[in-house]
């Protein structure tokens, strides 16, 4: 089916009318600001897994072979929960899903902190599973952002919300530094303290999300009401059904290309984060230094979301995804070539920047080609696909670091990037912009 869809992309399409420049209404600006602030708070806690996960495993087990276990466990939970939470989001709204996800993450953070105090590996795994389930649900925040904007400004809207994660990344470094400071006064393990402090940022994030009105799903279903002059694009009769489900999504060539691109950059990033933490730890750098490196990586992931969103709306989803894949590959080749702190950090920054390009553009692509009532499941399916790469590849990175060496990971990264690059080169932007089949998905 993918081949058939790919061939269809070669067919000339009729020019579509140019959508007028649409002003962002006050209610959307307010909701966007709330979501960005919530993302900033929530991101503070979420950053602890990539920055400290490998060190926690090393501290509990005394061996680096399973250093990627924390990232892999997070990948497993996202793999399990992403599509079901997408369905919940499509049925009950975005706010409910986000608040429930944050509540679960809060419990998970306390369990992880307790595990580090008790040096219990089994309790640590349980905490990771709980935290990961909540974190997977919180990914629906991207759906909420995409819902509130028309296609001509959709990636820009995503950029506004995702930029809040930069504050979260800085906050993550601050949280670790504060925990390090308090550890010397309390005698409690600094990593444990960092996790125990996480609820202090999650609770305000939950409160902010509850202030969003109306639910973004309602805005998505009535864009004409919020954007006067917006040209609604519905080709099928009322009551027609849209094919919904993982198999239906991957049979659609543009979505398949987006899924594979997300799989690749997520896998490369997961491997590089494990390797970076271990490499810097072996060089004797402190926890704040490791956290600062992870912060620069996170700035690459989120700091340029807004300009990337605007570029995506201007030059198209396909072009930005291709640029992101190439940038991610360049960073992955740079990280294993040296033991120098700033060179390694620069490589992880580029990996993060490439991931950001793909994340913003692929989310916009999927939203463009899916009706609002199926959008949560479509983006959830994409998250499931990308989470699959975060299950095995971080563990692979740990074994490589322990037994083979770092250099081979650069080659693995290139092999991951090549397939989506080919798929994206074959894709046509005009096909990406084709509206969804219908407004009402099959139940």
How would you describe this protein?
This protein is an all-alpha fold and 443 residues long. The chain has a single domain (26-224, 241-438), classed as Growth Hormone, Chain: A. It contains 21 helices and two strands. A two-stranded parallel sheet has the order 1-2. α5 runs antiparallel to α6 (121-138), α14 (253-282) runs parallel beside α17 and α15 (287-302) packs parallel to α18.
Global Rg: 21 Å
Helix count, per DSSP? 21
CATH architecture: Up-down Bundle
Strand order of the largest sheet: 1-2
CATH class: Mainly Alpha
Number of DSSP E strands: 2
- Proportion of residues in β-strands: under 5%
Structural class category: mainly alpha
Tell me about the biggest sheet?
A: 2 strands, parallel
Instruction: Please give the share of residues in helix.
Output: over 70%
Uncertain stretches of 5 or more adjacent residues: 1-18, 234-241, 434-443
The dominant shape is globular
What oligomeric state do these chains adopt? Answer: single chain
How far is it from the N-terminal to the C-terminal residue, by CA? 23 Å
Question: What do we call the CATH topology?
Answer: Growth Hormone, Chain: A
Properties at a glance:
mainly alpha, 1% strand, 21 helices, Growth Hormone, Chain: A, 2 strands, globular, disordered N terminus, 443 residues
Secondary-structure blueprint of this entry?
Blueprint: H1 2-8, H2 26-46, H3 48-61, H4 69-92, H5 94-118, H6 121-138, H7 141-147, H8 154-186, H9 190-197, H10 199-210, H11 216-221, H12 223-226, E1 241-242, H13 246-250, H14 253-282, H15 287-302, H16 305-315, H17 317-334, H18 341-368, H19 372-404, H20 407-426, H21 429-432, E2 440-441
Parallel strand pairs: 1-2
Helix pairs in contact: 2-8, 2-10, 3-4, 3-14, 3-15, 4-5, 4-6, 4-19, 5-6, 5-9, 5-10, 7-8, 8-9, 8-15, 8-16, 8-18, 14-15, 14-17, 14-18, 14-19, 14-20, 15-18, 16-17, 16-18, 17-18, 17-20
């Amino acid at each position: 089916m993918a081949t058939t869809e790919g061939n269809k992309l070669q067919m000339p399409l009729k020019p579509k009318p140019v959508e007028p420049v649409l002003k962002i209404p006050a209610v959307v600006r307010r909701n966007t600001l709330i979501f960005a602030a919530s993302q900033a708070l929530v991101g503070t806690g979420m950053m602890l897994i990539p920055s400290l996960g490998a060190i926690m495993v090393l501290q509990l087990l005394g061996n680096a072979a399973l250093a990627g276990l924390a990232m892999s466990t997070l990948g497993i939970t996202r793999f399990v929960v992403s599509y079901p939470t997408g369905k919940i989001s499509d049925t009950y709204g975005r706010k409910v899903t986000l608040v429930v996800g944050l509540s679960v993450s809060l419990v998970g953070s306390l369990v992880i902190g307790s595990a580090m105090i008790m040096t219990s590996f089994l309790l640590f795994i349980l905490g990771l599973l709980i935290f990961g389930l909540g974190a997977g649900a919180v990914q629906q925040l991207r759906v909420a952002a995409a819902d509130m904007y028309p296609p001509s400004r959709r990636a820009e809207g995503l950029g506004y919300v995702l930029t809040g994660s930069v504050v979260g990344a800085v906050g993550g470094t601050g949280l670790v530094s504060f925990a390090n400071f308090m550890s010397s006064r309390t005698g409690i393990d600094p990593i444990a303290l960092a996790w125990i402090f996480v609820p202090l940022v999650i609770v305000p994030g939950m409160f902010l999300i509850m202030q969003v009105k109306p639910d973004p799903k309602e805005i998505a279903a009535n864009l004409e009401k919020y954007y006067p002059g917006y040209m609604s694009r519905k080709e099928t009769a009322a009551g027609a059904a849209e094919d919904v489900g993982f198999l239906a999504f991957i049979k659609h060539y543009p979505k398949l290309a987006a899924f594979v691109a997300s799989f690749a950059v997520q896998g490369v990033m997961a491997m590089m984060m494990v390797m970076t933490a271990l490499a810097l730890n072996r060089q004797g750098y402190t926890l704040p230094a490791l956290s600062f490196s992870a912060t620069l990586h996170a700035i690459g992931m989120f700091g340029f979301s807004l300009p990337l969103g605007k570029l995506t709306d201007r030059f198209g989803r396909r072009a930005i995804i291709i640029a992101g894949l190439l940038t991610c590959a360049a960073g992955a080749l740079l990280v294993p070539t040296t033991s120098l702190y700033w060179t390694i950090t620069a490589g992880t920054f580029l990996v993060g920047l490439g991931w950001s390009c793909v994340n913003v553009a692929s989310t916009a692509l999927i939203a463009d080609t899916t009706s609002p009532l199926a959008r949560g499941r479509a983006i959830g399916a994409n998250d499931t696909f990308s989470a699959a790469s975060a299950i095995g590849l971080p563990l692979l990175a740990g074994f490589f670091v322990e037994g083979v060496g770092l250099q081979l990971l650069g080659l693995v990264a290139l092999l991951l990037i090549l397939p989506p690059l080919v798929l994206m080169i074959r894709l046509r932007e005009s096909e990406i912009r084709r509206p969804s089949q219908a407004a009402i998905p099959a139940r």
